[in-house]
Give the backbone structure.
Amino acid sequence: MAGEGEEDMPRDAKIVKSLLKSMGVEDYEPRVVHQFLEIWYRYVVEVLTDAQVYSEHATKSAIDCDDVKLAIQSKVSFSYSQPPPREVLLELAASRNKIPLPKSIAGPGIPLPPEQDTLLSPNYQLVIPKKSASTEPEETEDDEEMMDPAQSSSQEQQTSELPSQTPQRVSFPLSRRPK
């Protein structure tokens, strides 16, 4: 991985490899060098573009050292945020820690949310379709002949009085099993 084919490697890649070695990184994939080179080139192009803008703003004919320094300084201050000083963090921590924590109102164990806010409460429904006239066995002509005509008209009235085919919804709460 590291150290393979260094004689035909570009100068910038050799510099990246030596930087990795100086930082104690001995084992890495070859593409790491290419990734560092890409970041390096992109950073240099952005800094030089900013330096050119600063130079043009100052009506200079060429980029000088001050323009490059200003571009690097603006890049560092806008791209990388510095953490606040240690003293400021200590003051913030002291002021925050003056407020005591609230007393725990829960008993022993893990405090749980109310049952209505959990996903463990029963929340399912069963759809029970009502029996329809089409599920009853069909009558044959022999059955009709044997029936009384007055009876058949009353059956027709009963089936017409049934509500439309709306399913009935029923839910069941879960109960604890006795141990």
Remarks:
- Strands lie at 126-128, 168-170.
- The first helix runs from residue 11 to 22.
- The mean pLDDT is 76.
